[in-house]
Amino acid sequence: MLDILIQYSIPLDPPRKTFKYLESGPALVTKMSTKPDQIMKEIPELQDIRHAAYWVSHRGWSEAGSGNFSIRLRDQPEDLRSIDAMAKRKMPLKAPELKGEYLLITTNGSRMRDMINELEGNVCLVRVLSNGEEYALLWGKERVTSEFTAHIAVQSMLKKERPEFRAVLHTQPTKLVALTHSPSFHSPEKLVDVLFRMHPENRAILPERIEVLPYAVPASLELGLATARALRSHRLVLWEKHGVVSIGGDLEEALDYVELMEKAAELYWTVASAGIEPTGLSDEQIAETLGAFGLM
Ligand SMILES: [Zn+2]
Q1: CATH of domain 2-292
Q2: Cβ density class 143-156: b for 16+ within 10 Å, e for less
């Protein structure tokens, strides 16, 4: 039964702690026979990845091979050091802050929907070498995500300035991205203002609100550096006509912020689709709410 469910990708919603059964199933036994695979089984962040990938893919926020993430491992078990490097590669930009760090990162072209059942072909583990200019590939497929530059830029900044944030998630939530195509919202200030008037709790959870970056070529250094700058003081950045990048202590938290913003966009479109211009929360309602939350 389980094999059938997995084979046909029937949308289970397994609790985060119950994925163990997938690792002990017959299809994966041979894959787990080598030492690196045994070590990888003990890394708790893999559970976080499966759970986030499930939700992101079922919501349609990471179609085909889009969407990617990176996680700096919280613990570094001694066993990890015993894994031989499969290859050494040059970092997309020098990152001395990350030296010695282990990063789980999506591989190029990997599908979020595939990660629910199979991680090895879709996620890799790399270790940033001591000069910060090279990394060693330790596990998984060789080609890392095309947004590697942005991930290294952001992870480097986080390690230095906001070390409690370890997960960086890029995904493409439909209604939020759709707003950036509207001529009414070409002003980032107006877009952010409207979004944060759609629901009172968003200002409490994200008091710094979000930043909107103008369109830039995907995977470009320009986009990566601008994203890292924006995330110094925000937890979510909206890329015009493309998607979002959010950060969290883990992917689960990063996903929370995407959900909040996508809900705000959905509320906007639901009202606007009825031919009504949404009124949003008034200045007085916002002031009253922030006062109640102790944020004023
Ligand atoms: Zn993208």
Answers
A1: 3.40.225.10
A2: ebbebbbbbbbbbb
